[in-house]
Structures are given as C-alpha cells and as structure tokens.
Amino acid sequence: LEESILRATQLDQRSQRLALLNQFSGDLSTSLEVDDILKLSAELFLSALSVSTVAAVLISDDHNYVLTKEMPASEEKLPRLLPDNAMLNHLSQSLGVFSTPDIMDVPELASLLQVYFTPRNICSLLIIPLDTAVKLHGWFWLSMEASHRFSPSEIELACTIGNQAAIAIQNASLFEETHQLVDELETRVRERTAELEEEHRTTQTLLKISNELSTGLEIDNILERTLSILNDTYGAEQALILLADGTSRMFSAGLSLVQPLEGFDFFSRTRPEREISGWVLLNRTSTLIENLITDSRWDFTDVDEITFRSVYAIPLIIGDQILGSLQLLHRKEGFFDVEKMGLAEATSRQISIALNNAELLDLARDQSDRLIDMLRDQQIDSSRSYAILEAVADGVLVTDATNTVTLFNISAERILKLAASDVVGQSLNNFMDMFELSAKSWMQTIERWSQDIHLYQGETYAEQLELDDGSIILIHLAPVILGSNFLGTVTIFRDITPEVVVDRLKSDFVANVSHELRTPLTSIKGYAEIMLMGASGSLSDQQEQFMETIKSNSERLSVLVDDLLNISYIEAGQIALAVKPIDLLKIAEGVLQGITKRSEEDRKLMDFDLEALSDLPVVYGDPEKVRNILMNLVNNAYNYTPENGRVVVHILLKENEVQIDVQDNGIGIEPEQHSRIFERFYRGENALVIASAGTGLGLAISKVLVEMHNGRIWFESSGVAGEGSIFSFTLPLLRKEE
Ligand code: ADP
Asked: Which of 386, 409, 402 is CA-nearest to residue 447?
C-alpha cells in the first residue's frame, strides 16, 4: 500500500507538474514580452522546484552578462551589468547545465559571490541555459539558501522550463525585431515620401522658372517673375538680382528691404546688398549670411539702416563672364537653411544662362538691325546708281567679274545702235563679234584686267571707235575694284561724230585761209623790205618808220599764219621730224637774240638771260621744231611780262634728259586757268594778253612738238602778278639710232 501510495503521490506530482507545464506553455504562447516570459518562468521555477531565488541573466548584444530579472525581487535596480565570470564564459561555450550544492566549492563562481550570491545567502545553485538552435540568450539561476543537491528529475524539469522559455524569448525577440523592422521601414517610407514631395516641389518650381526664363523675350519681366517664384519657394521677403554689366541694373521682387538706386557704382561699399554681391563675385561662390550685423566679414556700422538680417547670395557666372548676383533676403536672422538652397543654386545657373542669352539676343538683334539698315542703304544706293546710270546722256556698259554684261543703258543703245535685251546677260565675247576688229583692244583690256587686276596701274583707258556707219565713238574704260578684288568694268560711250566733223571743217578752213594768207603776206613783207633798201628811191624818216612798222607787223602776221598752218598740219598728221644732233645752246642764243631785237623795236625793254652748262651733251631732235618750241615759250614770257621785266632761259641736265626752263616775272597764270592753258585757241583774259596779238595756238603746238620728241611739257605759276611763270620742257638724251 505504501508503495502504491508513493506511486500515487508520484503520479500526482507528475500530473501536477504536467499541468503546471501545460499552463506555462499556454501562458507563454500569449506573451511576446521578454520580461513577461522571464516572470512566468521564474514563478514556475519557484513553485515547481521549491527554490528560494530565481534570477535571469541575459547575454547582451555586446556580450556582457546582464542580471535582468530576479524573483523574488530584491532592492536592486535591474537590469544590472555583472562582472565577467569564468563559469559563465565556460557555459556559454559548452551550452551545458551546471549545479552545485555549495557555491563555495566552485572557484569559477568567485567573481559573482560579492555582487550576487553572498548578499542573498545562497548556498546551492542550478544554472539552466536559455538556449535555442539559433542563439544562447542567457541563463536561469535557481538557488537555495540551504545546501541541496539537485536531482536529475529536478534538473530535467528545470531544463524543460528553460527550453520553453528560451523558445518564447527567441520568438519574442524575433517579433521584436520584426516590429522594429516594420517601424524602421515605416519611418523610412515616411521620410522618403517627404523627400520625394520636396523633390517634386523643387522640380515643379524649377520647371516653372525654366519656363519663365526660356521664353526669353522681355528679360526684365521674366527676371522679376522668377524672383517672386523664389520668394514663394523659400519664404524670402525680397529676392534681388544685381547686374554687373556696367548698367548696374537691379531686379527685385517682394518687399522693398533694398531700394533700387539708379546708376550706382556696382562695387560701392555704401550699400550692403552691393558689397555682398561684390563678395560672392570676387570669391565666385555662394554664401549664407545668418545675421548681417554680426557677420565678421562685413562692418556696416556706418550704414544708416539695414532692415534685413538673413541673406543667401549666389554669384551669376558663366564661364569667365561675371554677370551679377542673386540674393534672397529676410528680416529674421538665421532664416535660410543652407541645405535647402539647391533650387536657388540651380535657378541661378538658369538665370545666368538666360541673361547671357538675352545679351546674345540683343547683340544679334543689333547686328541684324545694322545689316538691315546697311542692306536698305545699299539697295537705295544701288537703285539710285542704277537710275543715274540709266539717265545719263553717255552710254554706259557695265560688266561683272565674269565679263558678262550687267547693264547697258538707253544712251548706250542709241549710241551703239544695239538693243539692251541683246546685250545684257551676254558674255563680252559675244559682244565683241558685233563690233569686229575695231573694238578689239578695248575688249582685250577688259579681258586682261579680269584675269589679273594687278596689271591695272590706275591708268585711264580711252579710245575712239569708228562704227560701220562712220560715226565716231569715244570710249572710256575703267575697272571696278574693291580692295584687291576685280568686280567688273564700266565703259562710257560718247558719240563725238559732230565734234569730229566740225573740228575737221574748222581745221580745213584754217588750213585753207592760212595758206591763202601766206602769199600776200610774203609780198607785203618783201615789198616793205625792198622799199626800205631804197629800191624805190630814198625815203623820208617818217616813211622809213612806217615801212619798218609794216615789215615787223607782217613778220608777226606770218608767224601767226605759220602757227595756224602748223596746227592744221599737225591735226592732219602731216608733220614729221627731221632728227639730227642739235646744239641747244646755239638755238637758245638765237631765240634770245631775236627777242632782244623785237624788244628794242617795240621799245619794251627787258632783261634776257641764258643760264646753261657750257658742255651740254648732244641732243638729237629736229632743230627747227625745237627752235619753234623755245621761241613760243620765250615770246609768251616776253608778251606776258610788263616792261623792265626779266626773262631767263635755263638749260639743265637731268638724269636721262635735258630740261629747258623759261622763267619770267610777269603776270603769271591764275590757278583756275591752269587746266586750259595747253588747249588749242585758248587765250587768257588778262588785259596784257588781250592787248597782244595771238592765236592761242603756241602752247598747243609746242606740246605736240615736245611729245613728238618723246619729251614732256608743263608749267608752274602761282597766278600772282610779278611772281611770273616757269614753262619747262624736256628732251630725252636720245642715242642716234633712237
Ligand atoms: P597765245 O600766246 O597766242 O595767246 P599760247 O598758246 O602761247 O597762245 O598761250 C595760251 C595762253 O597761255 C595765253 O593766252 C596766256 O594767257 C597764257 N600764257 C602762256 N604763257 C604765259 C606766260 N609766260 N605768262 C602768263 N601767261 C601765259
């Protein structure tokens, strides 16, 4: 019976334990808090194993031993860090169970005696691991004040409770981790959503600003709108753009913390916003000013009133080009957050680009305006020129660089008897066929110039063209050159047939009359000489004087007639040179003798001098013609110099020629007459000129004769009476064979 009672008791105990364990697992399954699990486990240990104290020691993440729970609770504040311990170190490796009836027998526990066991009068100890396959969480310490050897069944029960508790802790910590993870994720999602919203807002704003800036039309309005968007975005009270382009313009939106001031000096130190602008441009970096008054970079003590405190300033720079600065202002200090200024920076870049574009646009506009003006001017010019060319009485033919005819005016049509429609657009070669040989040299000149314009030396090309119908056309040709480019040619045609015909008639008439005058003149002169010689009886003094006058006048008359004849011969091309070595000195002396005699006869006394080298080289020429030339010049000098004047003939040796100067101190030639002096029949209007007999042919003849000798003739005269004139001509030092 005793045995069956014992068994029954044992059974009873067992079923009680099972019930407790059941209850325990049930309780555990509802708990996800480590603290609850430890509490439940400790309670079970206390009731099921009759131990006096239960402690839970957990291993922290940084591998420290932490006394987390104690039952019954002591006065100690938990959790509490335990010192390092050899036994625990060993158990954390072996994952085993440890029990002892007396802790004093176990030296490995020494480090824990003072901190835990001794104050609680503990003697026997059972250590159960809180171990799952994943991790060792720590231990339960079951202890008694009495010495007690824990039986295998007690240990087994304790282990079972320990295992269940470990699993529950594992679950709890998993749950905890999951929970934390979820929390973390939620926070991250919330943060990211906020970031995205911020980014979205920034992008939207930037897009708005970009749109504003890219319209690029009225830069002033655009900048102001952009600034007010920035104000809205950052809550700034005023946004500014200060330009550094020399115009010192300022754009502003928001309040008027900074007043615009026309024409300020950009880097002036009297206004804070300008100095800040100078600073960011000098340093080429943006800056955040928390409080302008206390910022050590500036000292605005002498500035009257600064309303704003917070500034965010960004330089507007493209490459090397400094454009100005962008500034956001607020009266509150520390208003702007440097972290959030990305948008402002991006905007500043866009503004820089827009400003730059605007400048380029302005430049392009100016340029195109100028070009349009130029084009219009040119069009007006060219249509005016065209109209003028069409209207002139002379024929005009214009060719381009490819020798194609581009203009043939109405007069040209009339003069050349060709229709413009047959000529314009034609190559010059086709045109040449219409004229045959007579126009050859003219066409060849154009051809030559078009091939190499450097052949053109500034000469004027003139030619007479005789058309099949006998009309005479004077051609003047000139190239059109721009820089060193040949653009074409202009040819002017003038029909000179009537002039040529009249000229011929005049020459013929003059030649005939002169010829007819010669015979009677010769006999007048001859008879006067015979009578002077006394062939018709002696003459009274008065008669002799009259005869002398008749003789000298008939001589002068014959000179005039000779002039007239000469010019007719010259015009008719009927004059030739009889070239031989000549003695210039002798010719000059002869001429001067003649004039001296005349001056005595005229009772108009003058000095006549000859200044020449004695050993002049031999000059070849026609002595009669050279005498004519010199005589003409000396006669003029005599005629156009009042009494007691002086006439000097100089003969000078130049490099390849001999130069003869005839200098007088007479009436001179007024500048306005200079161009006409060598014209045929031209005579000056001075009283002395009119009083003297003359034809106006002397110089014209002299010029032709000099040029026939390949010499040159010219004169110098100031036109002031008394300063006289110098007429000069040259004769080349010809070798005989030339
Ligand atoms: P002419 O002497 O018969 O008038 P010329 O052809 O010799 O014709 O000269 C043309 C004009 O030039 C003269 O009428 C005169 O006005 C001017 N002239 C020529 N030589 C001189 C001179 N030495 N001094 C002043 N005038 C001169």
From this structure: 402
CA distance 368 to 361: 10
- Of ligand 1's atoms, which has the minimum distance to the CA of residue 678? 6
Ligand 1 contacts CB of residue 640 (under 6 A): yes
Residue 436, pLDDT > 70, answer no
Is residue 689 lining ligand 1, measured as CB closer than 6 Å? yes
Dihedral, CA atoms, 562, 563, 565, 571, nearest 10 degrees?
A: 160
What pairs with residue 486 in β-bridges?
481
Q: What share of the chain is helix, strand, coil (3-state, %, to 5)?
A: 50, 20, 30
Q: Ligand 1 centroid to 617 CA: how many Å? A: 30
The encoded tokens of residue 222 equal: 């655009």
Q: Give the number of C-alpha atoms closer than 13 A to the C-alpha of residue 648, restricted to the C-beta side.
A: 10
Q: What is the 3-state secondary structure (H, E, C) of 365-399?
A: HHHHHHHHHHHHHHHHHHHHHHHHHHHCCCEEEEE
Cβ of residue 669 lying under 6 Å from some atom of ligand 1:
yes
Instruction: Identify any residues that bridge with 473 across adjacent strands, giving them in sequence order.
Output: 465, 495
C-alpha span between 249 and 41 (Å, rounded): 82
342/125 Cα distance (integer angstroms): 66
Q: How far is 125 from 113, CA to CA, in rounded Å? A: 12
Tokens of 27: 């309780």
Q: How far is the CA of 680 from the centre of ligand 1 (A)?
A: 11
Closest C-alpha residue for ligand 1 atom 13: 683
Mutate to test the pocket of ligand 1, among 561, 608, 636, 705 (most ligand atoms within 8 A of CB): 636
Q: What is the largest CA-CA distance in the chain?
A: 228
Query: Cα–Cα distance between 699 and 702 in angstroms, integer?
Result: 5
Distance CA 536, CA 565 (A): 33
pTM of this prediction? 0.40
User: pLDDT tens digit string along 659-717?
Assistant: 999 999 999 999 999 999 999 889 988 888 888 877 888 999 999 999 999 899 999 99
Least confident of 45-49, 320-324, 449-453, 524-528: 449-453
Q: Candidates 556, 640, 692: which one to mutate for ligand 1, based on the most atoms within 8 Å of Cβ?
A: 640
Instruction: Decide whether any atom of ligand 1 lies within 6 Å of the 621 Cβ.
Output: no
Measure Cα distances from 109 to 80, 96, 120 in Å. Answer: 18, 16, 15
> Which residues neighbour 212 within 8 Å (Cβ) at sequence distance 6 or greater?
222, 225, 226, 229
Cα of 184 vs centre of ligand 1, distance in Å, is 122
Q: Is 699 in the pocket of ligand 1 (CB under 6 A)?
A: yes
Residues 6+ apart with CB under 8 A from 57: 65, 66, 67, 68, 82, 88, 138, 139, 140, 141
Task: Kindly tell me the sign of the dihedral angle through the C-alpha atoms of 630, 635, 636, 638.
Answer: positive
Average pLDDT, the chain: 87
> Any residues with CB less than 8 A from the CB of 192 and at least 6 apart, and which?
none
| pLDDT score of 389 more than 70 | yes
Q: Is the beta carbon of 677 within 6 A of some atom in ligand 1?
A: yes
Could you tell which of 559, 564, 595, 677 is best to mutate to test the pocket of ligand 1, judged by most ligand atoms within 8 Å of the CB?
677
Q: Is 695 in the pocket of ligand 1 (CB under 6 A)?
A: yes
Quick: pLDDT tens for 211-243.
877 775 677 888 888 898 889 888 999 999 988
Is the CB–ligand 1 distance for residue 725 below 6 Å? yes
- Cβ–ligand 1 distance for 300 under 6 Å, the answer no
Nearest CA to ligand 1 atom 19: 636
